[in-house]
Amino acid sequence: MLEEESNYDERNFVQKYGWYMVILFISIHYLQKNVVSPMLNDRKRKKNYQEAIEPERVARLQEQMIKVREEQQRQAQIKSHEAKEKKKMKMIQRLKETKIDQPSSSSSRSGGGYRLGSGSGSGNGGTSSYNPLMPSSGRSGPSYRYVLTAVDEMEHG
Prior knowledge:
Layout: H1 2-52, H2 55-98, H3 105-112, H4 150-156
């Protein structure tokens, strides 16, 4: 019987004051969100700013920052040196791979082969004066090309 009476009192209380409680909870939430939180955040921001501009802390941070920058500079120099060495080794390797042995002058005279434009080659006559950049260089006759234009045709014929 006691439980029934207790349960009845709680239900009666909620029925009587329920809407007031809902309005109270909404009001508390609104005040917390729009008044209390911004005020606490503002206090915290001011306190952090005061700590940040404290001369002892700034001096300590400056020393640490200088040490960090020196370490970064040292690491950058090491990486730069390693990159230069790696590039140098790549160039040496590339040169070794692409190096073509040139026949010496004594081996070419001993029947090893002929250089272009020297000696007696096949079909070349050995002493060709042909220049591939100037096609008229190997022909007999004038060493230039004469292109007739409409004006030249009227003058010559």
